[in-house]
Specification:
2 helices, mainly alpha
Length: about 80
């Protein structure tokens, strides 16, 4: 398949940008899914030792990928501990 892509790129050089951007989008999507699977608090890989990982988050932990206006280090806790 790679040989076919390279032969098409040699015949039509304007398609190189199409192949590059399509590959970059696929790589970005895979990295985002991997980020969600590894770092999101709703995902539990170890059910025996940590069945509810979202309970261990404090109020100033940042778990979003990108936060526009929130400074998580200065948030105060609202509610009780479980």
């Amino acid at each position: 398949m790679l040989h076919q892509i390279l032969s098409q790129a040699k015949k039509h050089p304007s398609w190189i940008s199409l192949f590059v951007f399509t590959g970059a989008r696929g790589t970005g999507a895979a990295l985002y899914v991997m980020h969600l699977a590894l770092f999101h608090p709703d995902v539990s890989w170890d059910r025996k030792n940590n069945p509810e990982p979202w309970n261990k988050l404090s109020s100033n932990d940042q778990y979003k990928l990108y936060s526009v206006n929130a400074d998580y280090s200065q948030l105060k806790k609202e509610g009780s501990d479980f």
